Amino acid sequence: MPYDPVEYMPHIYGNFRKKGEGIKVRDLLPTPEKGSLPFIDLSKASNVEKTHLTFMPSIEKDFGFDKAEVEANSKRDKRGCYEFIGGEDAGLKRLQEYI
Questions:
Q1: Over the stretch 55-90, which tens digit does the pLDDT of each residue have?
Q2: Does the CA dihedral 81-90-53-39 come out positive or negative?
Q3: Half-sphere exposure of 21 toward its Cβ, with a 13 Å CA cutoff?
Q4: pTM of the entire structure?
């Protein structure tokens, strides 16, 4: 980007687009072949690795929201045009619908 987004980020899309015109994007990295990415063997993983691989944060405990706040914000916002459904399966299904 021709600017530091921490210091300046255009608030209007047109300005954002104009700032980015003509910028060259680096070449893409090759797509990894199936089975080429390393996976951690949990039976050989350290306790720290196991903790990081299995950690699922709690919105109440880890982010400090109380039950009332969670319940109040769990209802669908009527202003939204698409209902958000969490989870990988729902995300992949939505991606297929979108594409």
A1: 889 989 899 999 999 888 888 877 877 788 889 999
A2: negative
A3: 6
A4: 0.35
